[in-house]
Amino acid sequence: MNNLRHLFYAVIACAFSLVVLVSSTQATIDNSPASSTSEEGACLTSISTNSSNMLYSIILPTYNERENLPIMTQLIHDTFTDAKLNYEIVVVDDNSPDKTLNVAQSLQSIFGKDHIKIVSRAAKLGLGSAYSAGLKVSSGQRIILMDADLSHHPKFIPEMIAVMDSTTKKVDIVSGTRYSRGGGVAGWDTYRKLTSCGANFLAKFLLATGGASDLTGSFRLYERYALEQILPQVKQKGYAFQMEIIVRAHKSGMKIGDVPITLSIAFMERVNSEQMKLSCI
Amino acid sequence: MGLLRRIDPQMTGLLRYQLFLSIGILFIGLWKASITRLATIQKTLSTSIDPSTTKILVIYLPIWAIILLGIYALSSVLYKVATFGDCPEAAVELSGQIEEAKQKLTKQGFKF
């Protein structure tokens, strides 16, 4: 009787290890056509539009960014002019009490309507919907999502574009990562680093993310079709929003690239410090 | 995790809970088997490990596994924190560029 039971357990153990192996090999077979079609799609866009003629849309959701927005705009303008790339900035303002909207309008008169587009919303409606609203107005084939508070420096955008243009490994999303060599943060205390690393470790352990190294970062370059596909599905808010994008992208067979970035917090902590602590880890 | 990635490099094949479930059941099966065959294990290890120690090792196997997992998690998070790049020079560079940008904007007629 005892032997029989022992045999039974051994069979269960073997069966399950088989299930793991078989379904994983099947999955790789199943996934290869899906990923190759997305690669084809990506190749088509890069062939049909020369990357130097391509328009890059930068969506900047703002709330009380009156001081940061002009500087951000100037930095973006300089970066893209130096790299000889076309850009448009889409400012999505949620009725900021500090009249960020007026600042955006005067920037529009300086840089031109083709460089700066404005979406003005009646109330704070959340980051996800701000990106959707910005995406609708934008017309670039590639979209950059970043924070308008100067914590993300536009100088990394050309590096991200270079990764996306690379023909050796076609990627649909390029994520700025603080964890790689060359990346990092300025002025974070150990506690905050611990929160960030802990959250990223937990997410990477529990979720399938395809090896993206910074899941909670919010500085990323997307192919337009990638963002159009994923954004409507995302339900989470705050840093979990950024995680969900990566998880969903990975699930639908998209490839994710990495570029090391450094994070500065020159102005960030002063404005909305409570909210920043939550949304930026 | 490295092993898992080798089995399924993309990690898209199984949903994560299915993966955890199969590993868990595999583990429970092995554990139960080694409890029922405790005497055999004790006999084979008796030259190097005391039978009572073997008994403790086998019976509390899930606890050892959890402790090992905890050590792995803690050490990898602490390693990440220790190697987290600090870049005060980025903040310095930025504050210089902020001044530059302000001058450019003022030149173009922007009022701060």
TrEMBL record, chain A:
Pfam families according to UniProt: Glycos_transf_2
Signal peptide: 1-27
Domain of life where this protein originates: Eukaryota
Gene Ontology BP terms: dolichol-linked oligosaccharide biosynthetic process; GPI anchor biosynthetic process; protein O-linked glycosylation via mannose
Enzyme class: transferase
E.C. number(s) listed in UniProt: 2.4.1.83
Claim: Endoplasmic reticulum is one of the keywords in the record: yes
Keyword Transferase recorded: yes
InterPro entries: DPM1-like (IPR039528), Glyco_trans_2-like (IPR001173), Nucleotide-diphossugar_trans (IPR029044)
Pathway: Protein modification; protein glycosylation
UniProt entry keywords in alphabetical sequence: Endoplasmic reticulum, Glycosyltransferase, Signal, Transferase
GO cellular component: endoplasmic reticulum membrane
Glycosyltransferase 2-like domain segment(s): 57-230
UniProt-annotated location(s): Endoplasmic reticulum
One GO MF term: dolichyl-phosphate beta-D-mannosyltransferase activity
CDD domains according to UniProt: DPM1_like
Quaternary state and interactors: Component of the dolichol-phosphate mannose (DPM) synthase complex.
Function of the protein: Transfers mannose from GDP-mannose to dolichol monophosphate to form dolichol phosphate mannose (Dol-P-Man) which is the mannosyl donor in pathways leading to N-glycosylation, glycosyl phosphatidylinositol membrane anchoring, and O-mannosylation of proteins.
Family: Belongs to the glycosyltransferase 2 family.
Record's protein name: Dolichol-phosphate mannosyltransferase subunit 1
Organism: Skeletonema marinoi
Source species taxonomy: Eukaryota, Sar, Stramenopiles, Ochrophyta, Bacillariophyta
TrEMBL record, chain B:
Transmembrane annotation, as ranges: 15-35, 56-79
Protein name per the record: Dolichol-phosphate mannosyltransferase subunit 3
Function summary: Stabilizer subunit of the dolichol-phosphate mannose (DPM) synthase complex; tethers catalytic subunit to the ER.
Gene Ontology CC: one annotated term: endoplasmic reticulum membrane
Membrane topology: Multi-pass membrane protein
Family: Belongs to the DPM3 family.
Pathway given in the UniProt record: Protein modification; protein glycosylation
PANTHER family listed in its UniProt record: DOLICHOL-PHOSPHATE MANNOSYLTRANSFERASE SUBUNIT 3
The organism's place on the tree of life at top rank: Eukaryota
Subunit and interaction comment: Component of the dolichol-phosphate mannose (DPM) synthase complex.
Record key words, sorted: Endoplasmic reticulum, Glycosyltransferase, Membrane, Transferase, Transmembrane, Transmembrane helix
GO molecular function annotation: glycosyltransferase activity
Subcellular location: Endoplasmic reticulum membrane
Key word Transferase present: yes
Short name of one Pfam family: DPM3
Species in which this protein is naturally found: Skeletonema marinoi
